[in-house]
Each structure stands twice: as C-alpha cells, then as structure tokens.
Fold this sequence. Notes:
Elements: E1 4-8, H1 13-23, E2 27-29, E3 31-34, E4 40-43, E5 50-54, H2 61-76, E6 81-86, H3 105-116, E7 119-123, H4 133-136, E8 141-145, H5 148-157, E9 165-168, H6 174-184, E10 187-190, E11 192-195, E12 201-204, E13 214-222, H7 226-237, E14 242-250, H8 254-263, E15 267-271, E16 279-281, H9 284-291
Parallel strand pairs: 1-2, 1-5, 5-6, 6-7, 7-8, 9-10, 9-13, 13-14, 14-15, 15-16
Antiparallel strand pairs: 3-4, 11-12
Helix pairs in contact: 1-9, 5-6, 7-8
Bound molecules: ribose-5-phosphate.
Ribose-5-phosphate binds next to β13 and α7.
Amino acid sequence: MMSVALYSFAHGADHAEALSLALGVPLATVDVHRFPDGESRVSVPEAASTALIYCPLDRPNEKLVDLMLAVDALRRGGACRLVLVAPYLCYMRQDTAFNDGEAISQQAVARFLSSLFDRIVTVDAHLHRVDDIAKVFPAIEAQNLGAAKTIAAFAAARGMGRRTLIAGPDAESIQWTGRIAAALGAEAVAGAKCRIDDRKVEITFPGTQVEGRAVLLADDIVSSGGTMAVAVESLSHAGAASIFVVVTHALFDAAAETRIRAAGAREIWSTDAVPHPTNAIPLASLLADALRNEMKQ
Length: 297
Ligand code: R5P
C-alpha cells in the first residue's frame, strides 16, 4: 500500500498536479460518473495510507457529496488518514443566522467535513465573526494558510512597492491587505462599504490620499463582482493613477470580469485557489510547505 498520495477530481486537476510535483507524491484521479438522474458513482484507484484530497470548493454543492463518496471509497480501501486540501473553503461567509429561520451554513458544513476528514488545509478562509479556523473545526486539525506573502511577491515582481496603495473594499479586507502591505512596506487602507442587497454595494475611501497613486485593490473573494467594481469606480473617481485588482478566490463569471474592467481596473489577477481565467499566482509551493509533515506521519 502507498504511504501517501494526492487525489484530485477533474476540477483543479492541473493545480493538483503542480502540488503533487512540489510534494513529490503520486497523483491519482477520483473518477466521478454522473447518472442520468444526477446521482454520482465515485471510485478511486489504489488507496494510500495517508490520502490527501485536492478539491477547490467553489460551486460546492455537488462536490460535497462527491467528496463524501470519495472518502468512503478511500477508507474502505484502507486509508487511515484523510486530509482535505481545499484552497477555497465554501460557506465560510454564512457564519451566523442573519435572519430568523436561517441555517448557519459555516457550522453545518464544518460539522459535515469534520465527520469525513482528519485534517483540513485551506487558504484565506473568510473568517469574520468566528475569527479562528480552529473554532470552525474544533474536532479536527485545521490550517488556514495566508496567501498575502505570495501575492506580495507577485506584486513586487511587477514593480509594486512601498509607494503603491494597498486598498481593500471593506473593513474585513484589512486582514488580507494589511499583510500584503506589510510585505511590500506599503500603506494599507480599507474602504467603507455599505451593502444594499446581494448585488449592490456602496464604497468610499474617506480620508485616503488616492489621487495620482498606483493602487493594488485586494480582497479574499470576488463573487458577483459588485464589491470590486464599485471599489474600482470609487478609487477611479478619487483620481487613482492606475488600479490593479488581486483576489485570492476568483468565483466570478465573465460578465463580472467585464464590469470590473469597465470600471477601470487595468489588470485582474487571482491565485489558483479556484481554477479561473484570471489565475496568475500559483499556490502549490505554499500548500506543499504546509503538507510536508504528512510525509512523516
Ligand atoms: C465579503 O465580505 C467578501 O470579503 C467579499 O468582499 C465579497 O464576498 C465579494 O462579493 P461580491 O463579489 O458578490 O460583491
């Protein structure tokens, strides 16, 4: 039996291959057959004693079921340690019941994943009211890796440095922009965001000297693109010389990308936490460093 192997679904297979090379472990594909009625038949090749499953959890609902079935197959094959490598971890934003009768999705999904895995490794999880990944997953090992240094190195390679303004669209974003700014020796600012509905927000940058400056606008997630587009518009009206957008988790579609570019973004870059046409910043090395201790289990 193999001691350690990485398993991947079709989604994100290229990034899983980069991770397997960085780790020096074999990569196997989880086969998912979708029946005409929508149910799945999931099978895995030979199980390893320690099975690392790579699965970016964007558009997660079907993937959660496929993961459950893959874990069943691996445990039945003899795997005794299961590690989920989910560079994007879904449902973290719904960390409270905002209205009567709502599920707290963060808790429900965390309980489900904790029942399957011994350890979870993710990147820039959206932690807000619950500020520590260990509190989200109290029953298993959990690591929330930061992409800030990787993003800052990417920005530095494009000539950004201490004169660049590192902006985030809202107060929560300072946990990401602050670290990017620190790595570049630059100033970080947060916008004042007011959400009107699922797709409409208003953002201002009061008291910030924006005029004539190059701005790197960063956030953890771009989904509908509304937040980024409005932040770009606001910085553009405030006289920014150039605006570059960087995001860890690119969940947005082509229409959102067009809207952000039309608002004035010169470039849009994302990490490869979620497979997306804007991917420019690989995370394989960050993930491999965190997973190397699995070789010694
Ligand atoms: C929320 O606080 C996140 O950090 C993002 O700002 C948000 O998810 C972006 O959503 P959208 O792209 O739909 O405006």
